[in-house]
Amino acid sequence: MCGIVAYVGGRTAYPILIKGLQRLEYRGYDSAGIALLNGETHVYKCKGKVKDLEMLSKDQDISGTIGMGHTRWATHGEPNDVNAHPHQSMNGKFFVVHNGIIENYSHLRKELKSRGYQFKSETDTEVLANLIENIYLEQKVTAELAVRLALTRVVGAYGLVITCEDEPGQLIAARKGSPLVVGVGDNEYFLASDATPIVEYTDQVIYLNDEEVAVIRQDSLELKNLGNDSKTPDIKKISLSIDHIDKGDYEHFMLKEIHEQPVTIQDTFRGRISMDESKIFLGGILDVMPQLIKARRIIIVACGTSWHAGLVGEYLFEQYARIPVEVEYASEFRYRDPILEKDDLVIAISQSGETADTLAAIRKVRETDATILGICNVAGSSISRETDAGVYTHAGIEIGVASTKAFTSQITVLTMMALLLGSKRQALSASEYKHLIKELIQVPKKIEEILKEEHKIAEIAAVYKDVSNALYMGRGLLFPVALEGALKLKEISYIHAEGYPAAEMKHGPIALIDENMPVLALAANDESYEKMVSNIQEVKARKGKVIAVVTKGDKIIRKMADHIIEIPDCHEAVSPLLAVIPLQILSYHIALMRGCNVDQPRNLAKSVTVE
Ligand code: AGP
Q: 605 alpha carbon to ligand 1 midpoint, in Å?
């Protein structure tokens, strides 16, 4: 959701805050603002991107070695200058930047209004600033205590940085639900919603836990909980580097991340697959392997693209490990009061590791005896810290809001887990196990072959860039890939697109087909090939335009489809990893040709940390 950054130290804060906000902009880009403390507090904020904020502030007084910044994904109040953060309390004592949602803000607002408070904005954050100030002035307590007392009255999620005019040189930070990381420097501290703004300065970080409050000065950091119990900071070393968050020669992070997949998939199975011994070794789930092997059923919870990866996992676990699987939207699962038994195993999949609904689903499972694993891409993220065990995808930081390399790395982890479990449960013979590992190892090379054909896919994109609808269809393991392809197109080109199991078309969606409807048909060389040929004939019979993803050398569909995109031949088990690549590239080029902001599509954010 929003991105927060702050600094206290000996350096000039302004450039650190601006660069930090640029790094966090993928979290939300509706408005941006900073507060700089240098005797008095200067606030600069406006609707739009960080570059608009730079234009606004660069000729102003931007001095000061302490400050905070915010880039917004609007929840309460439309994107405009007044609703932009930081928010100042009515009597000017407190300044606040906030990532999250104060659910009981309207109740608190009414109460404060009855005490004479007026509000400039529609935001929940301004309510919090006034609540803190009201407690501070009425109860004559320190700023830190006023913050803790106010937060005991708050319902919802927050990552916060707060300053008080009466206590200069100090930042107060607090977290519940929304992520907040402290970077520990030499006589200086950095704060941010994730590590990307911090890695340039230090690799020593503290991940704040829920209901923790940090009082930070240039030369000190005090950590406690809302109940005033002191906490010992748990300093971790992070292995993220600047190169990971640089576009390099690519025009967009999404394109860079699409082209990184041969490497990121190798990184996902590096040190986890030994070809010599035909073995898969997943250290992160070793401790819970007994639960995995005797699991009665697997329940996968996730959102968005991660949910699509979960659907691929369902097919893989059922096919190769013979365990029944259910895939749940985390947002529905958490409120449905699901029935969970001791021998159930839950897998939460999340790129960011911070998605609020998935986190809440995990906490729901925590109320039962079921075991919960995580598949995450961000080390130290909340989901990785709140699950019993798990596997990191090692796809490297993903900055493009439309997930690409994280998706293929999630599927690679799920494939390794399904094959390992299949072997452990003797559902897979040693020769099948060995053969499928070999197939998986060959995927990066085959993806390189597909990437070399990008120009041909761009030519197809040029034909369909002006359509207003599109349909995607696939069978078996390629059905979830059809859903993912449709999501990619929706997310970045704003074309309405739907994915369906190909056989489902006849039960309604086929009514949408005419000469203006492009249909992406995923017809790799597997058991359902003949069926896909019939489904394509049904579309062609209604004059639909067919773009078919087929196996290299396909002879039949080539004659029927309007356009074909070839992928190298492969075993069905790994076909999702290949078939999704052309769909990522196609949506990228269509969005580019429509002049859309590919890396920061409208209304979206990279990590959805609120409900
Ligand atoms: C995918 O392109 C989207 N960014 C979105 O659907 C995303 O997959 C979803 O928000 C889940 O995020 P997570 O994997 O970080 O939990």
A: 9
Task: Indicate if 58 belongs to the active site.
Answer: no
The reply to whether 31 and 147 lie within a common domain is: yes
Give the residue ranges of the chain where pLDDT is below 70. 241-244
446 is a domain residue? no
Contact between 481 and 522 under an 8 Å Cβ cutoff? The reply is: yes
CB atoms within 10 A of CB 462: 11
| Sign of CA pseudo-dihedral 354, 355, 360, 366 | negative
Contacting residues for 146 by C-beta, under 8 A, at least 6 apart: 132, 133, 135, 136, 139
pTM of the model: 0.89
Q: Which atom of ligand 1 is nearest to the CA of 302?
A: 16
- How many angstroms does the Cα of residue 405 sit away from the middle of ligand 1? 12
| Cβ pair 325, 318 in contact under 8 A | yes
From the CA of 403, how far away is ligand 1's center (Å)?
A: 7
The secondary structure of 449-465 as a DSSP string is: HHHTTHHHHHHHHHHHT
Report whether the peptide linkage leading into residue 480 is cis, meaning its omega lies within 30 degrees of zero. no
486 shares a domain with 384 = no
Domain CATH for 303: 3.40.50.10490
491 pocket-lining for ligand 1 (C-beta < 6 Å): yes
383 CA closest ligand 1 atom index: 16
Residues 410 and 328 in one domain: yes
- The parent domain of residue 119 ranges over 3-243
Q: Are residues 317 and 429 in the same domain?
A: yes
Is 606 marked active-site?
yes
Alpha-carbon dihedral sign for residues 47, 48, 54, 58: negative
Asked, for residue 572, whether it belongs to a domain, the answer is yes
Q: Are 206 and 265 part of one and the same domain?
A: no
Per-residue pLDDT of 88-119, as tens digits, reads 999 999 999 999 999 999 999 999 999 999 99
3-state DSSP assignment of residue 444: helix
For residues 437 and 455, membership in a common domain is answered with no
